[in-house]
Backbone:
DNA sequence: GGCGATCTGCGACTAAGTCACATTCAGCCG
DNA sequence: CGGCTGAATGTGACTTAGTCGCAGATCGCC
């Protein structure tokens, strides 16, 4: 993992990327700025692996990463993505519960983030209402999201979930540029069933398929499919 | 929902049920005791439903409840149980994040618990290190647990999960007293597949079946089954 | 003993995932 | 240009899980 400590300069400006932290109490703000450092990761690099210990609280300034769980039998699910303005909530969980990472993180684009030492994180939780509010709002949302995801992955039909994913990734009619195998992983499924569904859709004239790409032809059909299965 | 305000009397003794709160700072202890009240629910009653707002922090003194998520298509999963000495962690999440309950709670036995008004809860978080520590430790674990549950429900075979459940509920060789349908719900599955697996096990001589009950004969066989599938 | 509600058993069917292998395609190298 | 290679895709047979409809068994209760 390659990490660069950022140069001082305008370093303290990073707080502006987190509107909720704008109201930070002056003392807390100083504490935070004095004890944080910049981290950069290149696309494709691994942020952490399952079982890693966690030392720093992380705030994402720029770039996207995926948090995924790798199961005992080799299957994989995308749990969620972390983007600009987010905190890495699994990190919060580990720092709070003194446990190890239950999932892994990979950079999908180049990343720029702020790391805050665990001790500082805990101090701020104790002393700053604003900081505490910031942290727990993110945590609570993710917890709800994970419960919703569980529900979705376990009980919703694959074709409906696939329709949702395709529609979400094709704003403005642009094609989805991804392999079927990667799409399957995002859905917590595997290549073959996903490929079969896509092939059917192609035969019905709903989409066109090419190697590593897919284009939506009949948006309504997919929308209806996504809607009809709870 | 029937709620009884407990009589004063030895009311303040309840703190002894929560060892982690024993070290509470005297001022915080007073604050907590002065602003909490006892709640009782009878077995079968509903604590809260999905979408309910949350007003009080809850500590369980006695009895067990189940927190479950009910899906759009009528399926149901048990997320976790709350027992003596636990706090209801989803409540923490709602109070901290100002969101609504993403799941429902049902009393499995008669319950006795302590409710603490949201305002008091927030005050104590600000003022008491011990209280904060108590809350966060419980809270941090939940997210990891939900991710592990997701993994288990989505990727582990039903027979292995069923074997685990049966073994866990039959300490000391006592029979499992539950209907197949309720067992299936606990596993996020349905009656028929669970019934089929149990019937097979009976034919193999691993268990004996009766209406609303099941007895383990060959503990080793079940242990092996639970172990071999990730 | 009879009755109703609940629990259990079973068969046929659909959805999803696994396995093994064939086919197609893009990029590259000579 | 042609052929090679590896990745991506297509396909069929099979297993596991869940759905649906209904039959049969069992318990508590009058």
Residues:
């Amino acid at each position: 993992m390659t990490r660069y400590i950022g140069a001082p300069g305008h370093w303290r400006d990073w707080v502006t990327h987190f509107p909720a932290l704008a109201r930070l109490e002056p003392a807390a703000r100083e504490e935070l700025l004095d004890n944080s450092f910049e981290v950069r990761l290149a696309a494709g690099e691994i942020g952490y692996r399952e079982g890693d210990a966690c030392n720093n609280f992380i705030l994402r300034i720029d770039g996207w990463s995926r948090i995924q769980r790798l199961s005992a039998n080799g299957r994989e699910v995308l749990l969620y993505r972390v983007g600009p303005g987010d905190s890495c909530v699994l990190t919060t969980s580990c720092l709070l519960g003194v446990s190890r990472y239950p999932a892994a993180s990979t950079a999908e684009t180049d990343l720029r983030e702020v790391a805050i030492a665990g001790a500082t994180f805990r101090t701020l939780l104790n002393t700053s209402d604003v900081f505490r509010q910031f942290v727990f709002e993110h945590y609570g949302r993710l917890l709800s999201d994970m419960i919703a995801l569980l529900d979705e992955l376990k009980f919703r039909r694959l074709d409906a979930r696939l329709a949702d994913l395709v529609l979400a990734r094709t704003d403005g009619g642009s094609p989805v540029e991804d392999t079927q195998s990667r799409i399957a992983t995002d859905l917590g499924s595997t290549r073959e069933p996903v490929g079969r569904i896509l092939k059917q859709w192609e035969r019905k004239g709903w989409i066109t398929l090419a190697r590593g790409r897919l284009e939506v032809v009949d948006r309504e059909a997919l929308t209806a499919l996504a809607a009809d299965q709870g």
User: Anything to note?
Assistant: Chain A has two domains: 3-154, 156-227. Chain A touches chain B through 44 residues (CB under 8 Å). Chain A has a mean pLDDT of 91.
